[in-house]
Design brief:
The protein is α+β, with helices and mostly antiparallel strands. Helix content is 30%, strand content 34%. The structure holds coenzyme A.
Length: 299
């Protein structure tokens, strides 16, 4: 029997699993969600409260209840299609993690599939929420390590024939193509991600060589420091000092702002990127994230 009910986007987990009731949350649920975020024994949420509240208004949040008590919440963000980012998972009682996570994923299944999305994407420090997801068929894609740099030293300016300038709207098709060539699907940016970088609040640099966009870098001012959130070079131009050129420019900008540390994330196994960052004086901060995925329509 389907125990989830309450309108659009509800569902039930696999047979044999006891399930809490689930429903789509509305802005009126803010006090309930807010209280749950305070009391949750398991919580993965890197976003500020305003962002979480926006997720209620945009019908991207599901709540799980048992005996009238809110026992779990899930919020997703449509980002990097066809992946959908699971940005918040809260579980009131750790012992119930598997059932609650299963019920919430089942509730979110229909609206995400209807929106043309294909796979979940989840990143968080290793921990029990990830293990509950593993139980629901999620696969660990990669370990991501955070690197930090505490100075503005630049060992090389890279390829001086490369012109660095702010990225603009007209670059987006070329940047998206470059990105698709440089990254596996899990890490690719969609057009929406580039639009977001252009909307402001980001340092968004394009590397141009002979009139062609061959790389880009995105950084943001984060409470923790100057965060480089993206660096990519067209595979046809890799190994020719383009990445070095972009990274050197970003460090010069951090210096002009007086912001330290300079931070970035990279896949543990990305040897080329790690060689470049190590050369530039980046060292592991000790913080790691695990990247998970699963088809929404699983199994
Ligand atoms: C990682 C990436 C951005 C590097 O850009 P790039 O233009 O290829 O890099 P550059 O040519 O400027 O420099 C990288 C080089 O620095 C070199 N380097 C490292 N230490 C050095 C030193 N002490 N002296 C001189 N060069 C050094 C490395 O040799 C590396 O080249 P190699 O791997 O061919 O040996 C690019 O390869 C890329 O886009 N990869 C795919 C996307 C990606 O992984 N992005 C990063 C995600 S965090």
């Amino acid at each position: 029997m389907e125990r989830g009910h309450g309108g659009a986007g509800t569902g039930s987990p696999g047979e044999g699993e006891p399930s809490p009731e689930t429903r789509l949350a509305t802005p009126e649920d803010w006090p309930t969600l807010s209280a749950l975020l305070h009391r949750a024994e398991l919580l993965d949420c890197l976003d500020p409260r305003e962002t979480v509240y926006a997720g209620l208004r945009e019908a991207r949040t599901f709540l799980a209840f048992e005996g009238g008590e809110a026992v779990g919440a899930l919020q997703f963000q449509v980002r990097r299609r066809p992946f959908v980012h699971l940005r918040l998972l809260a579980v009131r009682h750790a012992a119930q993690a598997k059932e609650v996570v299963a019920a919430l994923l089942a509730a979110a299944r229909l609206p995400t599939l209807e929106a043309g999305l294909e796979a979940w994407r989840y990143m968080a420090p290793p921990g029990p929420v990830g293990e509950a997801l593993r139980h629901q068929g999620f696969r660990l894609v990669e370990e991501v390590v955070e690197l930090e740099k505490e100075d503005y030293d630049i060992p090389s300016r890279g390829n001086r024939a490369v012109h660095i300038r702010p990225a603009r709207e007209a670059d987006v098709p070329a940047l998206a193509a470059l990105d698709a060539a440089a990254f596996t699907p899990f890490w690719r940016n969609d057009l929406g991600a580039f639009q977001e970088y252009l909307r402001g609040g980001y340092t968004f640099l394009a590397a141009e060589l002979k009139g062609q966009v061959v790389g880009y870098l995105v950084a943001e001012d984060h409470p923790a420091g100057f965060y480089i959130i993206r660096l990519a070079v067209d595979p046809a131009w890799q190994g020719q000092g383009v990445g070095t050129r972009l990274l050197a420019e970003a460090i010069a900008l951090a210096k002009a702002q007086g912001t330290l540390p300079i931070l970035l994330n990279t896949q543990r196994t990305n040897r080329q990127a790690r060689r470049l960052y190590t050369w530039f004086g980046f060292r592991p901060s000790g913080r790691v994230l695990w990247a998970w995925t699963r088809a929404i329509a699983y199994p």
